[in-house]
Amino acid sequence: ALHESISLDDEELAALVERFGLFEVCSEASSPAEHLARPDLGRRLGPSATERLRASCPAGVDLQVVVGDGLSARAVHAQVPALLPMLLDGAVGRGWSVGRPFFVRHCRVGLLNDVGAALDPEVVVLLIGERPGLATAESLSAYLAHRPRPGHTDADRNLVSNIHAAGVTVDAAARRVLDLAAELRLQRGGGYRVKELGGA
């Protein structure tokens, strides 16, 4: 079950969990307060989480999608039900092997590194809620990393941000994320070395 702050009673999210077999793991942050006060804990998988991932997800896939609450569970609630199937279907359409998606509670972006170490996917996409701004609390970001490992930083990652109704639409975001993932696979690396095609 997903964390109650993401309103699992919402039929759309419940359907998403059922359709994609999502399961939940937690970062080392054990509460929302700790998540805010100790960002470093949110960047690491909790003690039993690595074991759970290895038992539940295939290793070495082309694309692994992770959903994290980040700083706005509302963003996850608003955007992921439409975006996740587009990403998974689009990846399969490109002939890629796709891992089993899962949800991380109290998640920070750096957690990508532990996911890479645990499952060794070629590309990891983390869908995570952005810090609620003045405009909207429904803005989602998609961070991409090529074979992430502990020690990697934002310089090794690529980002599609402002995914919400009045920003980057989920359709456009899905296309951009998949095109970026393809570029990361082609170049066998990511971060500042890889630019989005068309300069978008």
Helicity, as a percent range: 25-40%
Per DSSP, the total helix count is 7
Q: What is the global morphology?
A: globular
Assembly category: single chain
Q: Would you list the SSEs in sequence order as H and E?
A: HEHHHEHEHEEEH
Distance between the termini: 36 Å
User: Within the largest sheet, what's the order of strands?
Assistant: 1-3-2-4-5-6
Q: Could you tell me the strand content as a percent range?
A: 15-25%
How many E-type strands?
6
Give Rg in angstroms.
15 Å
| Main sheet overview | 6 strands, mixed
* Helix/strand/pairing category: alpha/beta
Please tell me the overall pLDDT.
87
Contiguous uncertain segments of 5+ residues: 1-9
What can you see in these coordinates?
The chain contains 7 helices and 6 strands. It is 38% helix and 17% strand. The chain has 200 residues and is of the alpha/beta class. The chain is globular and about 40 Å long. The model is unreliable at 1-9 (pLDDT under 50). The chain has helices spanning 11-20, 32-37, 39-42, 49-56, 73-93, 112-119, 170-187, and strands at 24-26, 63-68, 102-105, 123-129, 140-146, 157-163. It has a 6-stranded mixed beta sheet with strand order 1-3-2-4-5-6, with helices on both faces. The longest helix has 21 residues, at 73-93.
